[in-house]
Design goal:
The complex is a heterodimer.
Chain A: H1 2-31, H2 38-56, H3 60-81, H4 91-113, E1 126-129, E2 132-135, H5 136-158, H6 160-170, H7 172-177, H8 182-207, H9 215-229, H10 234-255, H11 260-274
Antiparallel strand pairs in A: 1-2
Helix pairs in contact in A: 1-5, 1-8, 1-9, 1-10, 2-3, 2-4, 2-8, 2-9, 3-8, 5-6, 5-8, 6-8, 9-10, 9-11, 10-11
Chain B: H1 2-19, H2 21-24, H3 27-52, H4 60-76, H5 81-103, H6 108-128, H7 130-133, E1 139-140, H8 147-175, H9 177-187, H10 189-194, H11 199-212, H12 214-225, E2 227-228, H13 230-233, H14 236-249, H15 256-274, H16 279-293, H17 303-315
Antiparallel strand pairs in B: 1-2
Helix pairs in contact in B: 3-8, 3-9, 3-11, 3-14, 3-15, 4-5, 4-6, 4-12, 5-11, 5-12, 8-9, 8-12, 9-11, 14-15
Classes of the chains: A mainly alpha, B mainly alpha.
Chain lengths: 286, 321
């Protein structure tokens, strides 16, 4: 019974991880940019949600779409004005640039919001399923995270923009010849990455405390999930997230919670060496 | 012929300037000089893998932190200070060589992520191995006697010595087959392989060189400050600062890391002093401006042409208004 509880905890956690990583994975897969900003964007989304709730009493569910759209706009503009200028440079350049932007955002957040942990408290209690306790706010977060991830999947598969993104990912030169404005698609992709980060932040604000100190940890999770699941695919991020959630949950039980992180990172390094395409082995963004 | 010697003359003048700080400057400046020497040596080290071979390595902090802990633990076990530094050097080099043989199979983004992952793993292992390393509480290292001023002077000499050795090794690599091979790898790894460069061996050597000096620097840093903890020793800021310094100067050159570190540290000092709350944002802004406007570093600016244009501008007859 204890194991079942651990498994359920892991799956709930994993769905949140999937939502956290899917935007990062998309940006990496399509733009070939390691977006060091991702963690801070999540925290920023969390802060916006928290202050909408705290100062104006707006329910996080209502705030979520607004926050997500705002983040989309920020991401779109950042890509169009800045990152697009160095998009074809080596990884050192793009990674350093996004890290520089991350430092700026991080600094302003710590100055204006300070690092005090804050959390939206909805007090929904816990659901008891035959001896297995699941906090309702987490369950709610999981459902939202899964819904958002599925929505992104549908957008990628069904919409014109989604197909254009996939086309750019496969061959940007050929996509340009087909009349796709590649730099706009890059901006849209980065915008979607930021949108997912903002939405994740809004969900996390309901479940975890929001503090700038967590931005590095979120970024680390995104790395691990991407490598486990394989780059730039929604199902990959979903598999990677849930696998990581379950592994962390069990590692926490067997070795103690302080080692859960280590296990995740070691797993990432091993997988990088053994199977860089990830568990799902999917290469394209289908 | 004068141009060929210019980098060495500049380096020698800079070493003399740093070494002479105890005679003309305050203790604060001496401390800054120690930090400059330390970061110059770290940047020169990174230059082997990141500059010459063009591999985006972000594992400097792992080597530095491991050096800190190896030195501190050896010293606490009763090993004399200098011997502890040598032990740290050996430990870190072996670690890097073994790791390099595995991780250098990765390329580009995967290598970058892997090297960041290594910093995290080493940090987590060190901080959770409480019985040996004191965990999050950190470790105290026996302090040198003689008061902070005398100690700062000793470590100025030590760090400068490491920096000079790192520079000499850079000069040697720059002129040797190794440097040539690494440049080939940087430009096109497959082509380098085809013309007979032993890619794996060269990359492992470059990666080990990039760690070699981090060992004694970390150990000496631990002896200098007398206290180390995981967050300080394995900071993600350091792991990105070092490549940024190198990019600022000019990666893959002999003098680039020296100039870049000096410029960066002096800039940082000005900003630290005046905008304490915003120093991270300013570091970020420096990075963004660097990437956009100085993609090849300070050394790539055509100073001669700029000077000539300036002279021409000044000599131009003024237009009567």
């Amino acid at each position: 019974m204890g194991y079942l509880q651990t498994l359920i905890n892991g799956i709930v956690l994993g769905a949140l991880y999937a939502c956290l990583a899917v935007g990062f994975s998309l940006v990496w897969g399509v733009l070939n940019v390691i977006n060091m900003l991702h963690g801070s964007l999540i925290v920023f989304g969390g802060y916006l949600t928290f202050f909408a709730w705290h100062s104006y009493g707006i329910h996080p569910l209502l705030a979520l779409p607004a926050v997500a759209l705002l983040m989309y706009a920020i991401g779109y503009v950042a890509q169009l004005t800045m990152i697009n200028r160095v998009i074809d440079q080596p990884v050192l350049t793009t990674l350093t640039l996004t890290f520089g932007l991350d430092l700026i955002l991080y600094n302003f957040m710590t100055v204006y919001y300070t690092a005090t942990p804050r959390r939206v408290t909805l007090d929904l209690g816990a659901l008891d399923l035959g001896g297995i306790a699941v906090p309702v706010d987490r369950l709610f977060g999981m459902v939202l995270a899964l819904a958002l991830t599925c929505m992104l999947y549908l957008v990628m598969r069904r919409s014109r923009v989604g197909r254009a993104i996939v086309a750019v990912r496969m061959d940007s030169a050929a996509a340009a010849l087909m009349g796709i404005k590649v730099d706009r698609i890059y901006a849209t992709t980065f915008g979607i990455g930021a949108l997912m980060a903002g939405a994740t932040g809004a969900i996390f604000a309901m479940v975890y405390p929001v503090t700038t100190n967590l931005s590095g940890a979120y970024l680390g999770k995104a790395f691990v999930v991407c490598v486990i699941g394989g780059l730039g695919s929604v199902p990959g991020a979903l598999v990677g997230g849930i696998v990581l959630g379950i592994i962390e949950s069990f590692a926490g039980q067997f070795f103690g919670p302080q080692h859960a992180l280590t296990v995740g990172f070691v797993l990432m390094l091993v997988l990088l060496l053994v199977k860089p395409t990830g568990l799902t082995g999917i290469k394209g963004y289908e | 012929m004068t141009r060929r010697w210019l980098p060495y003359v500049i380096f020698a003048v800079w070493v003399i300037a740093l070494a002479s700080t105890p005679f003309w400057a305050t203790n604060y400046i001496v401390r800054l000089a120690v930090m400059i020497a330390m970061f110059t040596a770290l940047t020169l080290s990174w230059n082997f893998i990141g500059g010459f071979a063009g591999y985006p390595s972000f594992s400097t902090a792992a080597f530095f932190g491991l050096g800190c802990y190896a030195g501190a633990l050896a010293q606490r076990a009763g090993v004399p200070m200098v011997a502890a530094w040598l032990i740290a050097t050996v430990v870190v080099s072996l670690f890097a060589a073994a790791l390099g043989a595995i991780i250098l199979k990765l390329k580009g983004h995967y290598f970058a992520i892997g090297s960041i992952g290594i910093v995290e793993v080493v940090r987590l292992v060190i901080s959770s191995w409480g019985s040996l390393t004191g965990g999050g509480d950190g470790l105290n290292v026996p302090l040198l006697t003689g008061g902070p001023n005398a100690v700062a002077r000793i470590f100025l000499v030590v760090m400068l010595a490491i920096m000079i050795i790192a520079f000499l090794v850079t000069v040697y690599v720059d002129r040797s087959r190794l440097g040539f091979g690494l440049r080939c790898i940087q430009q096109n790894e497959d082509a380098a392989d085809m013309v007979g460069v032993n890619n794996t061996l060269y990359k492992v050597i470059a990666y080990t060189l990039s760690a070699l000096f981090c060992g004694p620097i970390g150990a000496a840093y631990a002896s200098w400050t007398g206290y180390i903890d995981p967050t300080d020793s394995f900071s993600i800021i350091m792991t990105i600062k070092v490549p940024v310094m190198c990019l600022l100067g000019g990666p893959g050159t002999v003098l680039g890391p020296v100039v870049g570190t000096a410029a960066f540290m002096l800039l940082e000092e000005v900003f630290w002093a005046n905008f304490l709350d915003y120093n991270r944002a300013i570091l970020g802004a420096v990075i963004v401006l660097l990437i956009f406007f100085l993609p090849r570093g300070l050394l790539a600016i055509p100073y001669g042409k700029l000077g000539a244009r300036l002279v021409a501008l000044l000599q131009r007859p003024k237009v009567a208004s």
